[in-house]
Structure formats: C-alpha cells, structure tokens
Amino acid sequence: MGLEDKLSELKARVTELSTLGEVMALLNWDQACYMPPGASEDRARQMAALGALIHDKATAPEMGQLVEDLAAELGDLNADTLEAREVYLAKERFEKTAKVPRELALEIIAAEARGHDTWVKAKRENDFAVFAPDLKRIFDLAKARAEYFKPYDHVYDVLLDDYERGMKTAEVQAVFNWLKPRQTELVRRILQAPQPDDSFLERDYDLEGQRKVGEYAVRKMGYDLNEGRIDRSDHPFTTSIGRGDVRFTMRYLPSVRSSLMAHMHEGGHALHSQGLNPEWRGMYLRRGPSSGIAESQSRLWENLVGRSREFWAFFMPVMQATFPEHLASVSAEQMYRGLNRVENSLIRIEADEATYNLHVMLRMELEIALLEGNLETRDLPEAWNEKMRANLGLTPPTDSLGVLQDMHWSSGLIGYFPTYSLGNLYASQFWNQLLKEQPGIPDQVARGEFGNVLEWMREKVHRVGTRYDPQVILERATGERLNPKYYMDYLTEKYTEIYGL
Ligand SMILES: [Zn+2]
Q1: Count of domains in the chain?
Q2: Which residue in 266, 295, 310, 353 is the catalytic one?
Q3: pTM, 2 dp
Q4: Catalytic: 266?
Q5: What is the pLDDT of residue 1?
Q6: 101 and 158, same structural domain?
Q7: Residue 322 is part of which domain span?
Q8: Under a CB-based contact definition with an 8 Å cutoff, are residues 273 and 289 in contact?
C-alpha cells in the first residue's frame, strides 16, 4: 500500500470513529432533553455497547499498525504539513487510548457511571459521605492511568493534557500565581464601593420571551439554525451531532440574569463548531483544539460582547419590546451595570467575571493536593471550605453548596477546571488583538453588527481546527503565547469605570 492509500485508509477509519461518536452524541442529547425517565436502563445499555464498540475500533491493532507505518513513512510528524499533523494527531489519540489496559479503561468507565449516580444522591441529600468512596476510587484510577504516561514532570500534566494539549501544570500555576493576588485585590476594592442596582433582573420574566430574545441574539451572532437547534435541558450544553447539526440546550428561570448570557455562551460554542473547516471532514484536524480554546469562544460572546456597554446600546430596545412591563423604565446603562455587578458567591457557574477565576483556582489546588497525596478525599469538604474563606471570604452553609456543587469529578473530569480560566484569558487576548486590528468593532457591536467579529474568529480560530496546538493558535493570532495581562487589564479598566474606583 502506498502513502496515499494509507492516508485514505486512515481517513476511512477516523470517519467511522467520528460517525459513531456522533451517534453517541445524539443518544446523550436525547437523554438530556427528551428521553422518558423509565428509559434510563435502556439508554445505559445502548451507550455502554456503543462505547465498547468505539473503544475497540480506536484501539484495534490494525489502527496501531497503520499509524505506525504512516509515522515511519512521513518521518518528522512536527513538519508543517496537513498530512504530518493528521498522522501526529492520530498517533497521539491511538497511544492515549491504547496505552491504558482495557480492564483499567473499563474500570474507569464503570467508576464514573457509579460516581455520577452517588454524586447526584449526595448532592440531593447534602451528604458528602455518600459520594466519598467513589470519589476516592475515581482519583485513584486517574492516578493509576497516569502511570502509563510516564515520564512526566507532574502527574497533573497527564490529566491537563487531555483537555489542553501541550499545557503544563507549572505554566498554569505561574499564571494563576500572578493573577490571584491581583484579582483578589481588585475584588476587595470593588466590594468597598456602592453596588449598582440589579433588582430588575429578578422579576418574573416570561420563559417563552426569554427563549425568543435568546434565539434572536444568537441568530444575530451568526448561528445557523438550518444546521442547528435549541432545546431545553437541566444544564445548558452544546453538542455536534454532525457537520450540519450543531445543537445547544438552555435552561430558563423566571430571573433574566443568566438566560441571555447563557444563550450567547452556548451560541459561541456552536459558532466555533459550525465554523470548523468543511474540507477536513473525517479528519482529526477538523476538531476543536482544546477545552480552553473552546471556552474562549463562548466567553468572548458571553462577556466581551454580551456584557459590554455597546452591546446593550443595541440590545436594550429588543429587551424592552419583549418585556415592556419589566423593563420600560430601565435604561441600557442600568442594564449594563446590573449585569456586571460583582459579589463573592458560593457557586462557580453563577460567579461574575471578577471572581470566577478564584473558584477555578481553588479546584485546581485541591485536585493537585489529592493527586500528590497531600489531602485525603474524606478531608475534602473541610479543605474546600477553608479555601472558600481564604479566596472569597465565605463559608458554604452546606456541602451541596460547596464541595458537591460541580458534576466534573464524578464524571472523571480531573484537570478540566483550569481550562475555564484559560478560556477567559484567551478570550481577552484575542479580543485585544481584534480591537487593535479593527478599532471600529465596538461601534459595530453597538449597531448589532457582528459579522467582522465572527469572521476574525473564523479565520484565526474556527477554521484552524486542531491544525496547531492551543498556544501556537494564540501566538499566530496575537503574536504571543498566553499572557494574563490582557485579562487583568480588561477587568481593571471595566470595573474601575463601573464602580468609580
Ligand atoms: Zn462553555
């Protein structure tokens, strides 16, 4: 078989894996949105069968041989060509899956399935002890899996690399160590100033009205509903079920505080997926490069655009027309200030831009302590509360509002949290560069024109797929690797003005 034949063979295999992955995504989406409760056992059986099929195809000896042959034939997989990159990604994926013994991989899947159930129960009953043994098991298995990826500088590097290719623990720690005192000091100053009024966000807003304005906003952003749809689920998420099928979900509450921003957040994820290069169908190249880059795209629309004064100049009349009884007497400026109110809070997903990263840092510190053996799972609630007091000056009244609030650990997502903060930092760095190149962007946003924002992101991020590692994407777009200064400057400027610091 010649090189071309082998590359086609790889493409056929990757296409098959992606196709099965899309079927899994459809099962997941249906489970979250429409499945009747009585079907949970059936769905678990269907997903386990499909999961085993995907695992076996991904780790098939023929796949390993093909990837080895291609790597040998191409030589330097770091060469700047599409073929070398695709084979590099295929080899990486194969090794990550095949290095872990099948029994361990299946044990991990089973522990996560059980962990998710006990976490739901523990959170509902506010009883950490219900979840503690499974949590310990999940961390132990993560450590056992990391053993197969030695040598590493830090065990956390192995986990982090699953979500943020090439990023090292030491690099994230250095960024967080720089950011933490600065962000904490900014929050301290903000909280001494008078708070803007945001009581109008908490009125009883019609849910259908919220859906309408949310859909209007994401359509304006460029989300194509001919190749997507919006449904309801308990937790908003975005999923790709095919090249022409990128859906997201929403949750609506009477308060209007979060639904529009959540639309723009998930809409940002969906635009990223819709913008991946269509010519790379069936290739690893046509995937998002990392969780951090993915999150930069959602945060950019949610915060840099959606929480800006310019956006509200455009959007306030839309909101007032939809909710005249609640908002007729509220100005765009009041809305802007209300949506940017800062306070120390218990729940990460409800945190404002100024305090959000402090929640993430706490989680990363605890994950590292658990992996290094400096903290026992049973002592986690106490350690959590101590850090909440230190970082945010609050003690969670219950574990459900503390250590049990996130589902991540129960699903084996260890090393994932930092990518949320990286997303914030990347978004500011991209935005800074975009404004440098196109100073007219804020005026365009104020007129509801988002085409140039989207086109810049399409060119610099979406169409790039996984052609480059996250830091290289950042460097090619902005001239430098991750630099937290842009984020800190953005926060400082924004809140100094809002709070008159
Ligand atoms: Zn997100």
Answers
A1: 2
A2: 266
A3: 0.96
A4: yes
A5: 84
A6: yes
A7: 199-328+418-499
A8: no
